[in-house]
Amino acid sequence: MRDRLLEAADRLFYAEGTRAVGIDRVLAEAEAAKASLYSHFGCKDELVAAYVQHRIALARSSIEAFVAPIPPGERALRIFDWVVAWVESPDFMGCPLQRVVGEVVDAGHPARVLAADQRDWLRARFTEWVKAAGLANAQQLATALLVLFDGAVIASVQDGSRRARDARWAAGELLKAAAGGRAETRAPKLRKPKQ
Amino acid sequence: MRDRLLEAADRLFYAEGTRAVGIDRVLAEAEAAKASLYSHFGCKDELVAAYVQHRIALARSSIEAFVAPIPPGERALRIFDWVVAWVESPDFMGCPLQRVVGEVVDAGHPARVLAADQRDWLRARFTEWVKAAGLANAQQLATALLVLFDGAVIASVQDGSRRARDARWAAGELLKAAAGGRAETRAPKLRKPKQ
DNA sequence: GGTTAAACAGACAGTTCTGTCTATTCGTGT
DNA sequence: ACACGAATAGACAGAACTGTCTGTTTAACC
Predict the structure, then answer these.
(1) Average pLDDT, integer, range B107-128
(2) Smallest Cα–Cα separation from A28: which of A43, A42, A15, A11?
(3) Which one of A59, B50, B52, B140 has the largest count of C-beta atoms within 10 Å of its C-beta?
(4) Mean pLDDT over residues B166-183, rounded?
(5) Does residue A75 contact residue A129 with C-beta atoms inside 8 Å?
(6) What's the confidence (pLDDT) of residue A181?
(7) CA of A67, closest CA in chain B: separation in Å?
(8) What local confidence, expressed as pLDDT, does residue B194 receive?
(9) Cβ-based contacts of A167 with chain B (< 8 Å)
(10) In this structure, CATH architecture of domain A44-181
């Protein structure tokens, strides 16, 4: 039951925005009664938070599954292939977290607290991937790629998936510059003209 | 009168979102009567469109004024200083256009049509600046910087202005790579081993 | 001074929204 | 058979929203 409500909310909230969709629409979509919703979630804000939580869980497992078979050193670049695939999926409507943050002004809102967490998680992943590539200046490079990631998603909303490809290209250039320009931190090896 | 209404709408819409702010709030803020608003704007959607139009006009003139004294060849990078200053301004709440696009699902909404125009304008500026720097692969570089620009703004909403600085750094690296890696387009004329 | 356009205050209709509450039904385990 | 937890339908309150309309006031112009 909770799942049915959450999935209905997920579809509607993502397609139209949390503010544009009322409780009644969610109930109709889930074919559920109002009391069920309020007994499970307490109030709409908590339903929104549950929606965000759900999206976060999906994103994390999707990303983890995507990078798993990729050699750690290539993940920082290849994650942009994941972005391209995402923005090209048929009902892509932007990043649900970016949209919630835009709609909900209060940074203390439960949904925004979750979004902030996810943000930390994503930055940690980029840091990890960049370090795995054995590049110097890892922190700087990781946050630069994070910004590129954000830009790829938001720009694709208006401009289509070509922006995600542009971001991938830029990420490649940055990584190339970091690898070629200066020495790598670990292992002597010689610099591999990656991608 | 129209201006007073528009400025009130601008303040409230930008601070809280166009959907969160009702007509009555705008009227109270402008100390105006309802009839005034509806005779000037017709309906709320048109007020939202006027708000977007206003923000676009501000952005264009602000950007133009900012780059005017900067040598054309440096503008593609220095525009990121403008972004840093913007996201550090005290009541920065993200990009008003990105937020409206997130709120308004219908791409045919008057406000979204205006936003799409502004998008073209901005991309054209980046192309112009990159070309002025005399770099090869201008289109690719321009759209990459555009994505970086978008990412700088959206990422700064959650992470603060350091992301705008990260974007500036990344832009510098990309421009350096484009300038150093291969020949510049003008003058020398030797064959460029592209990509 | 009289005309006219614009702004004013605010009532009003009609809808939508969140959240509460009552009363009923269903299914399961004992 | 029975009890109990969970879901159901839906009325209801109270607020907020958009948009319309009426009647009044203000101010500029001839």
Answers:
(1) 96
(2) A11
(3) B52
(4) 85
(5) yes
(6) 57
(7) 22
(8) 39
(9) 144, 147, 151
(10) Orthogonal Bundle (1.10)
